[in-house]
């Protein structure tokens, strides 16, 4: 399974979690993860009143955008790195949105890597 398949599966699992859906039922937000290193790759996560979706396309005007290396994104999604540590060390940077509003995305931004780690512990995942 590659990192894109892992991410999609994590979002699918998140959509089945009724407690999570209840927690984010009033949230409408878009988040772009721009993975840098040679060929840039973007992932868009959308939350619309409890439903999460994932796209491999870069939304042009997201509410939040983060830049991260492909390797660090892989490590984040497989549980080898943690978002707050990546932010604190400058390996993941917020390039759109503000820290004041970060609480809007804390739940969806935190659950996807957590689910990714669970999936990665059971399946072989590679970066490509």
Automatic annotation (TrEMBL):
InterPro entries xref list: SCP2_sterol-bd_dom, SCP2_sterol-bd_dom_sf
Pfam family, one: SCP2
Top-level taxon of the source organism: Bacteria
Domain SCP2: 13-95
Signal peptide residue numbers: none
Protein name: SCP2 domain-containing protein
Species: Candidatus Desantisbacteria bacterium CG1_02_38_46
